[in-house]
Design brief:
Helix content: 25-40%
Bound molecules: 2-phosphoglycolic acid
Strand content: 15-25%
Shape: globular
Number of helices: 10
Structural class: alpha/beta
Number of strands: 8
Radius of gyration: 17 Å
Largest sheet: 8 strands, parallel, barrel
Length: 257
């Protein structure tokens, strides 16, 4: 997979003013050529995706539509509509112009009790609505210390992938929980081993598995992005904290070109 995906997960951050300002700064940076150009006229050499909170999807869609930056939700409900107070369906995200949705982020798994079955149902919903599901998987520090990283990550992968997943509608994001928001990252060797296992684990389960993108996430910053993005089978990054500063997000994207 040559073209990388650089995705910003804003989590529960930004009000209208700051979210719009951040989006405009990112767009201005792209238009100023901060991210190297790609093959298509006016396009950049990697795919850029912003996943703001649901409250900001509409205004941000208005800004980035037709500007080559994709929009994604951070979660969706498994059902298309109904009595689910506070939830947002994949169809609603698609209606606002989203092309992607993150499902099974560790913060959803940890703090909202989401299981592999629930994540799989959400990924199925994303596909039903025509969205690409970014399925997050990753081990805890306790799993890692117990030598269970590969077993746990493989379990998440196989448990969360729906039937019908293919390279065009599915992205896997490997995010070790202990690396999220901590400034810690696994060694490049460890990232390589896990990503190679994920690639192999998708074989026979995901159509076009060699072309299916596998992102790394967890404390990606401008100063470690170049090395992480060069690891075999790292096809992009899912970025939390550093995606809230336009300069950092763009600097990471510049390494993905
Ligand atoms: P982080 O978050 O970049 O702040 O570590 C990544 C994520 O949770 O997606």
């Amino acid at each position: 997979m040559s073209r990388k995906l650089i995705a910003g997960n804003w989590k529960m951050n930004c009000l209208k003013g700051s979210g719009i300002a951040l989006t405009r700064s990112i767009l201005e940076g792209v238009q100023a050529g901060v991210v190297p150009a790609g093959d298509t006229p006016g396009g950049v050499a990697c795919d850029l995706l912003l996943c703001p909170p649901a409250t900001l999807l509409y205004p941000i869609a208005e800004i980035i539509a037709r500007n080559g930056i994709a929009l994604g939700g951070q979660d969706c409900h498994a059902r298309p509509s109904g009595a689910h107070t506070g939830d947002v369906s994949a169809e609603m995200l698609a209606d606002l112009g989203c092309s992607h949705v993150i499902v099974g982020h560790s913060e959803r798994r940890q703090f909202h009790g989401e299981t592999d079955e629930m994540v799989r149902a959400k990924a199925e919903a994303a596909h039903r609505a025509g969205l690409t599901a970014i399925i997050c998987i990753g081990e805890t520090l306790a799993d890692r210390d117990a030598g269970r990283t590969l077993e746990v990550v493989r379990g998440h992968l196989l448990g969360s992938l729906p039937a019908g997943a293919h390279a065009g509608n599915t992205v896997i994001a490997y995010e070790p929980l202990w690396a999220i928001g901590t400034g810690l990252t696994p060694s490049l060797e460890d990232v390589a081993v896990v990503h190679a296992m994920i690639r192999q684990g998708m074989d026979g389960v995901v159509a076009q598995s060699p072309q299916t993108r596998i992102l790394y996430g967890g404390s990606v910053r401008p100063d470690n992005a170049a090395a992480l993005l060069r690891v075999p089978h790292v096809d992009g990054a899912l970025i939390g904290g550093a995606s809230l500063a336009a300069a950092d997000f763009l600097a990471i994207a510049a390494h993905a070109a």
